[in-house]
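Readers of this paper often ask what the protein records in our data store actually look like. Such a record has a labelled line for the sequence and another for the backbone structure tokens. Nothing more is needed to write down the fold, since each code stands for a local backbone conformation. The record that follows is passed on verbatim for readers who wish to inspect the format.
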Amino acid sequence: MIIKNMKTLISHGNVNGRKIVLDMLESGLKATDPYTNAKKLIRIQDNKLIIGHKEFPVKDSEGQALGSKSLTFNLSNMGNIYVVGGGKAAQRMAKAIEDVLGDRITEGHICAKKGESVELKRIGVTLAGHPIPDEDSVKGANIIFGIEKKAKKGDIVFLSESGGGTALMTLPSPGLTLKDIQEVTQMLYFECGASIMDTNAVRSQLVILRGRHTRNVGDATLIRFNTAPTPPGLRERSYVRRYRGRRGYQGAIDVLKKYRLWNRVSQSVRTCLEKADPRYGSIMPGELKGKPQYHYRVIGPEDMLEAAEKKAKDMGVNAVIIASSPDDIEARAFGKTLTSIALEIEVYSRPFNPPCALIAGGELLVKTGETSGIGGRNTEFALSAAPMIDGSENIVIASADSDGTDGPTDVAGGIVDGYTMKRAKEAGVDVLEELNRHNSFDALKKLGDTIITGARGTNVQDLRVIYIGD
């Protein structure tokens, strides 16, 4: 079982509705492990290394689609094979590569999130800090940078990367310190509630590894395995619309000014961005033209959402994916919006007839300001719905992070129903006050309603399920 405390979660409240919601979550989360897909992409046959699979289209160094092309390398005259990367799903993809290639791997290193177990044997692993990078993030990134610089023409470099890699592989640009990056992350992501796009628009210009691997490996062949945080098309469309003309160093400056942080960040950060040294900046259009580099999208949130949808239909429940990647939205606001839709269905049977389930993904925001509560976007989303469905015998709402850790907590998310407010009152929990303090984790933990999966070694953002019974 992915959800380790299933029995506790279905021991109270709307038991039947909870079972349906948690079964959908279980199926969706189970579909997010990138290992199986990564292993499909690599095989050895007749002393040849073959990379590619008909299910996974590939792109070249310029992002041009090449169809389901397979790459073939003769093992007899191949150079070195390196494996590097970082992110919450990086170790699972690297394990697939290691399980196929074994001692053919010359050297490798992965930065994974603290809390994960080390699964790799030949490839080194540094467990690093996330979402705030730490000294281990820098240590691991330095090792990866050193390996990439060894690569030369005739070598193959496998790059295993996913969401979370920006923090886990933090290698500050010259003139910057780890503290500079930590402060920027704290101000943007936590205090201001900036989206991960906005946060990374700044952080990516302050480091020299994340997003620069393709430059670092020179003329070596780069094979990139990526676990995507958003469904195909949505990220690209959103990025183009919101960041047109705001990329690179100037884009980072614009984001800091947008959140009124330009005069709060350190002088060294301002100097770095104003200097705009092209040696350490983002990869520029045309810079990699002709380089032997190939990108495979191993897994994405659509796999999770569609698995949850299928499970619902297998149980005879009509299910609808209503928002696969909501962007730049506060968790409480989105929670209230989806709960309003659930109430409309419960009372008026519109726009859908109950019993039915609403499914949503994406990564929401929690603007903590100077509050000291503990929680994440998933527990806050769930708890924010509790007051609105108080007394309902039909609605159950749950939300969980695919990586197994919601914000700074050790739980994946939380679940509520129409009995939550009554149980909270009996337990002495003031739900509205806890929401104001952004203390959703403690509130749901006291009620036995946090969802526990443990660190899962994947990252395709979150899964939210709202069930409306009849």
User: Anything to note?
Assistant: The chain has a mean pLDDT of 93. The radius of gyration is 23 Å. The first strand starts at residue 42 and ends at 45. The domain at 6-32+302-468 is CATH 3.40.1480.10 (glycerate kinase, domain 1).
